Amino acid sequence: MNGYPLHPGKHAFPAIPDPSEHAAYVRSGDPTAHLATSDGVILLYQRRLLEHARSAYQTCARPTWVRGGLDLAEHNGRLFGVCGGFGIGAPAAAIAVEQLAALGARRIITVGTAATLQTDLGPGTLVVCDRALRDEGLSHHYLPPGRSIPASTRLTEHLAEALAAASTRPRRGPSWTTDAPYRETTVEAAQHQTAGILTADMEAAAVFAVGHHRSVDTAAVFAVADSLVDRRPREKTPAVERALRTALTAAVAALAACSLSSGTGQEH
Predict the structure, then answer these.
(1) Host H or E run for residue 250
(2) Which DSSP symbol is given to 11?
(3) What letters, b where the CB count within 10 A reaches 16 and e where it falls short, cover 104-121?
(4) Tens-digit pLDDT profile for residues 86-143
(5) Which residue, 167, 157, 169, is CA-closest to 261?
(6) Who's near 55: CB < 8 A, 6+ residues apart?
(7) pLDDT at residue 231 in the model
(8) Angle at 40 between CA 72 and CA 37, to 5 degrees
(9) Confidence (pLDDT) at 266
């Protein structure tokens, strides 16, 4: 039986396409396409949250820089970006991270929703993901075989501190990243619940893997929107909307704090 990926050890081999090609293409039409002077970029998956970010921070669109769309904003004299419209799931998020990194972004925080695997996490609870189970395919093309991958420690600390400052009492722990949201089974949910995994998501492991590969600091925060352990389907609730906006505000603060504390260096 073949293993996965089909070519063993492929993470150690150079790739044919390179995201620097994307950066060169973008800059051929817009020489200002650089993100190295920014604090970083926040990945957003909900359209309403992206619209809120554009309004709250009076962003300036850079629609041709990355897949989906990128907006730049200044807040308290600091420059950051918000990126959305690129799709959902590990491959979509990974492409966005690759293109942002090629343009010079050194810190990326993903802000989205997730399903809880614990009965005490209700809708709107914020969860800082400090480690992701690699039950998607993409991370295995970037890193050696392994069960999980950590977020960047320093950026995650700044994110947790920013959320705590907002009096949100966030939870912190691991998430189960999977490519197959309609194949999340009872046996898996029970196993992960017992192991203390807090949430199920679709992007964290991929974002962390690309971050490690490209020396970009990455972190993730989720608003709980549904449950897999006492099946509660996703609903539009004010609590989730408020939580996402709080997470966005904290992510902006965390990018600035991490940039100021670490200069141009990264850690993983």
Answers:
(1) helix 238-262
(2) G
(3) ebbbbbbbbbbbbbbeeb
(4) 999 999 999 999 999 999 999 999 999 999 999 999 999 999 999 999 999 999 999 9
(5) 157
(6) none
(7) 81
(8) 75
(9) 42
Residue 45: DSSP 8-state: -
**pLDDT value for 264:** 47
Structure tokens at 243: 């939580």
User: Contact 217/97 with Cβ under 8 angstroms?
Assistant: no
Amino acid sitting at position 110: T
Section 235-251 average pLDDT: 93
* Sign of torsion over alpha carbons 129, 110, 169, 260: positive
If one counts every other C-beta atom within 10 angstroms of the C-beta of residue 85, the result is 16
**Cβ contacts of 71 within 8 Å, gap of 6 or more:** 53, 54, 59, 60, 61, 62, 81, 82, 83
Q: What whole-number distance in Å separates Cα of residue 11 and Cα of residue 139?
A: 9
pLDDT in tens, 186-221: 999 999 999 999 999 999 999 999 999 999 999 999
User: What confidence score (pLDDT) does residue 2 get?
Assistant: 65
Domain boundaries, the chain: 20-262
To the question of pTM greater than 0.90 for the whole model, the response is: yes
What residues pair up with 79 in beta bridges, in sequence order? 74
Classify domain 20-262 by CATH architecture.
3-Layer(aba) Sandwich (3.40)
DSSP category for residue 139: G
